[in-house]
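Field: sequence (string)
Field: structure_tokens (string)

Example rows 1 and 2, in order.
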Amino acid sequence: MSRFAWLRRLWALSTGRFGLVVVLAIGAVALVARFWLPFDPQTVDVDGRWAAPGWPHLLGTDGAGRDILSLLMAGARTTVWVALGAGLVATVIGVALATLGALTARWVRESVAVLVDILIAFPVLLIAMMISSVWGGSLWVVIVSVGIGFGVNIARVTRPELRRVLHSDFVLAGRAAGLTPFQNLYRHLLPNVAPVFIVQLSWGMAVAVLAEAGLSYLGFGAPLTEPSWGLLLKDLQQYISVHPLSVVWPGLAITITVLGLNLLGDALREATDPTLTRRRTAAQTHTTAVIS
């Protein structure tokens, strides 16, 4: 079977197509915004305040005359940076804790389990506020806090899966063939828990987008000089009764991005998990047989 057969299965799913298109579109917008924007998002134009959507301001302007489309494009850079950064931190923490909690001595496993139970009791936003109270509000606060919060979540879900796969025949055969624990982890254990890990990671990245918007809204996230969908939503929401359309754009951008990440994660799990694929194929065959 082709190495990229999972990609064809992903594209065959409607949720996979939607999630993939949304994620690629946000990434493309963030990349374009790195080099070009229609207008400077920080330029104030008093005479152009609250311009209606049209040319040259396709989505209109805000109360300071700033182009909303440029603010959204610049905010996409912040969103992608936070999502990728939080995903990386969560991956490192989650894999490290799951490995320690599954492949080490019993006293280490139990200590890690207790640590995970303690850390998981703290909500992500609370962790972010605790860190920001010491280091001040910044994007790094969002990245680290979401990374810690969902790294613990990943560890809690992945550790039992690692323990289950650890007693599989192919893992025991690899151990008998002389593979080191690290080689067994890399070749056999992690690939077999990847579907569960991917779903958790996609949820973590989606929550990172929401956390960045929420924390920026509360003043704990992006600084005022950094374009952010949360800051834009905060600036525009006070005018919602006068200019309601302006608030729609940042809210819609956050909603579509989070929805796309969640749906992509679910579709990736179905496309990469062979057991789910076989079940879906068997169900379709059975349904076709019954109809016939």
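Row 2 begins here:
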Amino acid sequence: MDKKKPVQLRPYSKTRYVYQKLRVCKHCHHFTILWEDSCAHCKRNALVPVMELAEKRAKRSMQSDRLLFCIIGLSAVLLSQTFLQIVISFACMVALLVWLWLIQRRVLHSETLHALDKLIRSQRKQILEGLDLNKATASAAIKEDAQLGYEIVREIASLVRNDRIRLQQIVLLQSFSLRKDMELELEPLLLDEFDPDLAAYIGEIAKIKRELINSKAIQYLLDHESNILRMEQGRQIMIDAAGAAVRKKKYIDTFPDFISRYADGLPRYRFLRLYQIVRRNPGLSWNGLRDRVSAIYNEHYRSDPDFQKWD
């Protein structure tokens, strides 16, 4: 087995909305989701956030509306027959323009989103071509530098969500020496089908970042339990995941049979956590989990002072 590579991953910039990562070249109108300085298609430093382009289009549309109001107002002024009518027409035009400008300021964000939606719909083909170019960049990078390749794939995965991209991420992550201080994720990488690399990754996450083990991750393990147990370290993966699950009572409530099956393999400090939750909830049996915990306690921890505090 190849030795895992220690890496220092580039900080991942998260955005509230996925489209905020998408950029477009002002020159050739090709799209990218990567952090590159110049356009990969035309090589010019003309990349701008797609949101910026959408806002510019929204403002241009608003300027057209104001120009139309000016034309109508000036027409009224020119058609006026007396000085009073000219003054009234001009005052009305100015008042309407100010009112329109104030309204447009208030709706700029919603109009920008509307322009963005139109832009994405009309440029769907170009966006897909840009993402294909990003994928080609990732494939080339993976051959030279797995870390850079993963960072590129991670960016692409924020917009392209399919099993092929997820598998690429999982395989690359499994080639790294993972640490608690890394920006790791689990739920977005879950697949429908069984994959040994994903199962192994869940086992590592259960040891270094227990907070990422949630109901969906546990359900994935249960859906593919028989396949995982056939892996060399399969039972240990299930034990580590059970140990991560006992950090919250809600997972014990939801998956008592899962916890019960692997409770005897839990490390002392994780079993102590399970024992504490059981003792705090005397009215719950959890489908026999309470009896299972009692049996393990009597066999291994009856004289342990940390456990005796809860007797």
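free_text_note (row 2): The first strand starts at residue 5 and ends at 6.
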